[in-house]
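Onboarding guide, step 5: your first structure request.
Type a short instruction followed by the sequence, for example:

Predict the 3D structure of this protein.
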Amino acid sequence: MPDTPLLLSPADTARALPYPALAQAIEAVLRDPGVTVPPRLVQPLPGGGSLFVMPAVSPTVTITKLITFVADNAARQLPTIQGDIVVFDTATGQRRCIVDGPTVTARRTAAVSLLAAQKLAPRTDGPLLIVGAGVQGRAHLDAFADGLGLREVWVVSRSTDSADALVTHARARGLHARRVDDADAALAHCPLVVSCTSAQAVALRGTPRDDAFVAAVGAFTPQMVEWAPDVCQRLAQRGTLVVDTRDADHEAGDLLQAGIDVAALPTLADVVLGTPAWAQARRGGPVFFKSCGWAGWDLAAARCVVGAKPCP
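The system replies with structure tokens like these:
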């Protein structure tokens, strides 16, 4: 083994992580009793950014994700998320490879939403409404198109140029796509909804359809928010709320700001494993899936990478 581990480019990382396979790998992590994921460390940085340190361990592969998040980096023409994931052999402790952190973050977040939609969405034929046309908007469009057979997408963004670019991308994939200006009005027409804004302020005040599946991914700290508190409260009363992991208990800004007892909600693991918590929580109406992120998702991606393109 060479002293320097293989460094995968963003393109190589993406090729190793097709969305349907990554969703399956995420489900496998949730079913694997040998996986250990300690709480992530979030270190504030001078100027308002954050450093995230996220380890995860499985019997074969161990990872540490090191990324920075700086919300206003767009003004500097820099990515909001930067960093890498170091992949180790669990048995020997040797570095296997280093993969591109932003690419993994985008793809595993969208793959988690895909898995949740596969398990929870009352209907998957669309149209899909994407609110926020950045990196996550494109990743979710691709994930849902690859994993659900999506045929139509509507896009809302504060930036007309970003929305038009995502519409062009969707049409290049053979999808029917349009830009719309009113996200709340579009909710009435779209049974699939993904909110992936910068989550610096409420972006949605309308109520999703009774047969809707919502993946809310933009807010991943208690201070961030995309959905109005009264909407979240109505969804808690007449629908089903699910969080990605128990880390959401103290991170799910949309739900926490609505005064919802997040710790009482089922997780995606409860759904996958069919636990009593899921059986008790499951009911009709819209499904609101709140995703905050977890190093287990990055571990799933690392296992995909190692399996798809073994590192020396």
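Each response can be followed by summary notes, for example: The chain is about 35% helix and 25% strand.
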